[in-house]
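Researcher: Quick sanity check before group meeting.
Model: Go ahead. Protein one:
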Amino acid sequence: TRLLERASAKENMIFRPLRLNDLDKEVALMTDLFNDAWAGNWGFAPIGFDEFKSMADSLKFFVTPDHGFVVELAGEPVSFGIIIPNLHDVTRDLGGRLFPPGLARLVARLGAGPFPSRGLALFGMRKSLHKSARGGLILLTMMEELRLRSRKLDFDQIEFGWVLEDNIGMRKPIEMSGAWVDKVHRIYEKKLAVA
């Protein structure tokens, strides 16, 4: 917090909400940022505009402008993130079954809110900012921004998921903020013989 309070720290940095009234433009921007940010990660496959748009169309029922953000440096978009309600909060007691009664309960709960926790569903930052002081500042600013938004959106916990175990640049600031590793998902690989 002391670092972020320095006047020079956030100079030329704007943290703006998503522009849901111009969704196609925002989706094009996020597709570009995501593909640039994730290129080179294990198992990465580029995402296309249509696929991202399909996800955005599904999420717009849960997401308000305050659930997403775009970071601009000197007027240029360099990072984005989207938080969504944690659906585990409303599906925990359904036993993995949506049909027949579970679906009705799920829909009723989704409309009722509020959700006590959120998940950072997507986050991307230009590759040129990875492992840089400016990139670290964006990450710290994002965490502070999410803390402030938690008051407005009425949630008390956030899950930073999909962080690769060896991505120390993301893990270290998150863990320094007081978060802890809760789950580790292992992926195993086996080479199949060519017939």
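Researcher: Fine. The other one?
Model: Protein two, sequence then structure:
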Amino acid sequence: DTSIGHAIACCEAIESLSKCRVSLRAQAIRGILLELERLANHAGDIGAIANDVGYLPTSSYCSRIRGDFLNITGLVCGNRFGRNIIRPGGVRSDIGTGMKKEILERLDAAFKDTVNAANLLWDNPSILSRFEECGTLGTELCRKLGIVGPAARACGVEQDVRYDLPSGIYRFAQIPVSTYHTGDVFSRAFVRMLEIRNSVKFIREQLENLPGGNILE
């Protein structure tokens, strides 16, 4: 689920030790791929949450939508999980004009479907009653346990490594930290939907303003 994230972490360590520079274009492509990975994971998680309360419409839709996001990554590099595209010094695959257009079209379609699938949850009082005040984790206990990621942000903790310790393209194009305050199942699902919106916006901006240069130094 985190092939791209782990590969970038490894490459950034190697690049730092070797003082290797990565072009802004390669950093932007890495960021696009990271956010596509986030989109796939969040869509899958929202579907899994729906499945946990026996609500199959959203669960089924999100399983397919997760595949749609993964297929966009496959379009870029030939592998749906982004394996082998990240390497020290940059990336192995570029994004040309034709591919950029297709990515945006697929991204818009998948995002529209994600919003519709999530709205099936938000508009269903029976489902919301199973989410709200269920599995609540308070902010103080969250901090004591060292919770991170969407689970922490769902407890109202404004903590995101992309914002607090930015590297790569995130030093130049930051994504707002998405939080909600209730710390329950609803909050964990809702924060993921907020992050999906921000990731889609980020990818669009990066594609529309993709800098020139080499993809590998």
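Researcher: One line on it for the slide.
Model: DSSP finds nine helices and two strands in the chain.
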